[in-house]
Amino acid sequence: MASATPPQGTPATGAARVLVASNRGPVAYQVGEDGTLRAKRGGGGLVSGLSAIGPDADAVWVCAALGDGDREAVRRTGGRLDPDDTGGQRVRMLGIAPDVHAAAYNGIANSVLWFVHHMLYQTPLEPVFDAEFRRQWAAYEEYNTAFADALAEEAAEGAAVLVQDYHLTLVPGLLRALRPDLRIGHFSHTPWAPPEYFRMLPDDIAEQLLNGMLGADRLGFLTRRWAAAFTACCEAVLPGGTGGTEIGVHGLGADADFLRERAGRPDVDERLAALREQIGTDPDGRPRRTIVRVDRTELSKNIVRGLLAYRQLLADHPEWHERVVHVAFAYPSRQDLAVYRDYTAEVSRLAEEINTAYGKPGWTPVVLHVKDDFARSLAAYRIADVALVNPVRDGMNLVAKEVPVVSEAGCVLVLSREAGAHEELADEAITVNPYDVVGTAAALHAALAVPGGERAEGTKRLAAAATALPPAQWFLEQLSALRG
Ligand code: G6P
Question: 333, 339, 396: which to mutate for ligand 1, most atoms within 8 A of CB?
């Protein structure tokens, strides 16, 4: 079913010395009304890492076509994208059949594996591993096989392959069987579930998944906690534990140079002026204080309890009325899944409810934006007095690391102890239990009360910890560890 193989006549290069594989690639295409394709480039740690190794490394990025525009680009190019669209990066995009991709990505990766690692199930009724699950698992195998085949074709003898995330857990094992000469790494950008939760998966699936990962020479995780959970799962499920596979921890940090340069551009200044207008001034004529959050509208980010905590703050501390605004940016994510659509609707409903209950002419207590706008996010980072990062569980959370880097006057970080970033930032943050709404409200109050000087000093220390391992270094560190 999968059509990962390029049309006849498109030669496999077999020349790549460094390969990256991820579901979402560095570019996405949209078909314009006139039939032209528009390429939009993304950012992130892998993009920085690959540009840091330079063009001589013969790097290839293998990714899946996600939407109609991507599929059209694959049809026109045979899957080897035009380097003009990718900033010079060689990209092989796989035109996996839409039904196979949907079952693997929405069905298994985002509805099962993401839920397991973030512990998101409402367990009295879910998960149910029925025949439909088995059908989707077969698609997940097929999708992983398409990646392994493409990597095997593109890789030079002894090349290093860096496989990304829960979408591609079977790739290391499949690729090892095809190409024993390769150095294979896998990196998890998510948390890892503890064994008692992971073992909800059917036993054969749990084994297959772990064995797939252990096909790698080296596995990378964002924190010691997630690495330890993975090891514990292997010990609980497999007779030989993690076997000979090496396990490393690489805590991806914020890219200070990029963020500071980008945050100073005119489009961010414009957004900042508009935001200030919306936030307004307090009864003494001073700019209102801000509690900022920026997330994908993602179940694990805990946006709803964040709003409940803010409502509790307003109930417990009337002295903040008209003096604070909760600036909440919740950008669309995974809207093919009904549970994400429902969650998105609940975020809007609750924000509206708080504004109706507490708002006054000239004061909107919650300023909610749901349209993705990176420049506006940076503007919010610049003026945040408090950053609220309260996920129920999160691999790292880069927002927690980015806000202190961009903040102008200093900002207090209210941080969930379940975010990976907590392992590195706890000393300088106010820690919260993400389920405890009353506790989070108290933490917000304490954060708002921190005096300016103390806030600025704390923010400097936060920014230093947050930038300890910038993206390019994060990537190079893994590459050299893999090459040994
Ligand atoms: C997380 C995952 C990434 C994923 C991103 C966005 O950070 O670890 O692999 O790309 O979410 O999710 P999406 O489903 O839109 O790619």
Answer: 333
Over residues 315-367, the pLDDT tens digits come to 999 999 999 999 999 999 999 999 999 999 999 999 999 999 999 999 999 99
- The pair of structure tokens assigned to 53 is 């190794």
- Is residue 325 within 8 Å of 279, Cβ to Cβ? yes
Structure tokens given for 48: 């920085």
With a 6 A CB cut-off, is 44 part of the ligand 1 pocket? no
Whether ligand 1 lies within 6 angstroms of the CB of 334 is answered as: yes
Q: How far is the CA of 55 from the centre of ligand 1 (A)?
A: 26
Residue pair 320/314 in contact (Cβ under 8 Å)? The answer is yes
The Å distance, Cα 4 to ligand 1 centre, comes to 21
Q: Is the Cβ atom of 483 under 6 angstroms away from ligand 1?
A: no
Q: Are 139 and 162 in contact (CB under 8 A)?
A: no
Which ligand 1 atom is at minimum distance from the Cα of 66? 16
Q: How far apart are CA 305 and CA 301, in angstroms?
A: 9
Q: Is the CB of 190 under 6 A from ligand 1?
A: yes
Note the pTM of the prediction, 2 decimals: 0.96
Domains of the chain listed by start with CATH number:
16-95+143-252+473-483 (3.40.50.2000), 256-466 (3.40.50.2000)
pLDDT in tens, 273-321: 999 999 999 999 999 999 999 999 999 999 999 999 999 999 999 999 9
